[in-house]
Amino acid sequence: VVGEDETIDRLQVLVRIDHAYIGDLVVTLYGPGGFSKVLHNRAAGSSDNIYRAYEVPEAVGRQSAGTWSLKAQDLSGLDVLDRYITALGGQLGLVATFGDEQLKVG
Questions:
Q1: Which has the closest alpha carbon to 4: 26, 32, 23?
Q2: 18-65 per-position pLDDT tens digit
Q3: The whole model's pTM is what?
Q4: Which candidate in 48, 65, 72, 105 could, as Cys together with 94 as Cys, close a disulfide (CB 3.0–4.6 Å)?
């Protein structure tokens, strides 16, 4: 949960998911006001694990306050992964830039 209500100039999401065959995964960022953005959509085939930063230009101009969460789903039907990872759990890193200041969560 982000308490500061600032206009976002830049949003970067730092994702770390340990999972075999990331081509099965869909990873979606959810934010305040009904915001959602698919960050990973069954890409990279048989590669393992997602360790990367995603830029989210669609968040520029939005307000930062509220609940931000990440949902990771395994759509293969063979593995079990369907959970929300929240900033409070330390698994989701948000870096929002407001002018010359940065707010880091997670």
A1: 32
A2: 777 788 888 899 888 999 999 999 888 788 788 888 888 998 888 888
A3: 0.73
A4: 105
What is residue 91's predicted lDDT score, i.e. its pLDDT? 39
With H, G, I as helix, E, B as strand and everything else as coil, classify residue 97.
Answer: strand
Q: Is the dihedral of CA 13, 105, 28, 36 positive or negative?
A: negative
pLDDT tens digit sequence for 64-89: 888 888 888 888 766 555 444 443 33
Q: Closest Cα partner for 22 from 44, 38, 54?
A: 44
Amino acid at 106: G
- CB atoms under 10 Å from CB of 79, counted, come to 13
Rounded Cα distance, 23 and 31, in Å: 24
